[in-house]
Design a protein that fits this description.
Layout (H helix, E strand, L loop, with lengths): L5 H13 L3 H13 L12 H13 L7 H13 L1
Length: 80
């Protein structure tokens, strides 16, 4: 597998992972997630980013999404 292009390797991994029984897929996902850094790896726990986004919304309130808009965007992204 080491000689395959990265995209082909990913596609092969996805295809093979999809063939695993549900419990084994869940265990694989758990191991993969545990191998990554925390989502909020910022030294301040993401506070600076939240403050920046808050200031952006203060400057441009029309960029805000309603709950309905947010959920629709998430649902649309899952269909891709």
């Amino acid at each position: 597998m080491d000689q395959l292009p990265a995209r082909t390797l990913l596609q092969e991994l996805e295809q093979n992972a999809g063939k695993l029984p549900e419990a084994e897929r869940a265990a694989l996902v758990s191991r993969l997630l545990a191998s990554r850094p925390a989502v909020l790896a910022d030294s301040d726990g993401g506070v600076a980013g939240a403050r920046r986004r808050d200031a952006e919304l203060d400057a441009n309130p029309s960029a805000d999404l309603s709950d309905k808009q947010f959920r629709a965007a998430i649902a649309a992204s899952r269909k891709r």
